[in-house]
Amino acid sequence: MLGYAMNLQNKVALVTGSSRGIGRAIALELGQRGADVIINHRRNSTRAQADAVAQELHNLGRRTLVIKADVADPQDVAQMFSLIQGEFGRLDILVNNAASAVFRPLLQLEEKHWEHVWDVNLRAINLCIKHAVPLMPTGAIVNITSLGSIKYLPNYGALGAAKAAIESLTRSYAVELAPAIRVNAVCGGLVDETGFSEMMPQDEKERIARLTPAGRMVKPADIAKVVAFLCSDDAEMIRGQSIIVDGGLTVGLPT
């Protein structure tokens, strides 16, 4: 059990958008398994949250680095990876978690909304991978998507399209970066304790929990555990896959 718990010992991981929510849970899970973790956040207002995550990792004995960077900004991304190279000299794990959305019906979306959603959710991933690969002789990349990539969710059209594109990008990179770097995606269900779930009425959350075979909504920690597995050598033969973590919601829904 101890060997499995520490199966990322001495690995260096970058988790984008890791000051809160799913990203925070992933950063802490990787740290608990032995990885040193770079915490990325975008706004000055999230610095305190990012520092708090770094402190939790420091308490575990991990090396950390907090970097403020907009992953949709090429200059910010270049600077972020330059800092990583200077501090750690390499990267073993990249988790592309940062996301942003405009929740509106498709016909109410303006061009600027589409540009924002695609810049932050799709182009940013490609940008981060391009900068990460020179620092990764071997390793693992995990992209975070959502059920909106395969199912209709109200007011989720733009983000859902971007998430579907991320899963396609994942498959392409899985082939082009093989065999040294494994690339997969984790497709989260309706995850509690996140910005999207905070907009949901409590009775809707309870309805989703009843429809979920697991008996509850997915938590950020559930996503984090699957990400950590995919980052480990135990997942050597899993490549180009989008692993759905939804407690069985999509298979349990009435037809």
Automatic annotation (TrEMBL):
Keywords: Oxidoreductase. One of its GO terms (molecular function) is oxidoreductase activity. It comes from Acetithermum autotrophicum. This is Enoyl-[acyl carrier protein] reductase III. Transmembrane segments: none annotated. The keyword Transcription does not apply. PANTHER family: OXIDOREDUCTASE, SHORT-CHAIN DEHYDROGENASE/REDUCTASE FAMILY (AFU_ORTHOLOGUE AFUA_5G02870), SHORT-CHAIN DEHYDROGENASE_REDUCTASE FAMILY PROTEIN. NCBIfam families: PRK07231.1. Residues 11-194 form the Ketoreductase domain. InterPro entries: KR_dom, NAD(P)-bd_dom_sf, SDR_fam. Pfam families: adh_short_C2. Belongs to the short-chain dehydrogenases/reductases (SDR) family. Gene3D superfamilies: NAD(P)-binding Rossmann-like Domain (3.40.50.720). It comes from the Bacteria.
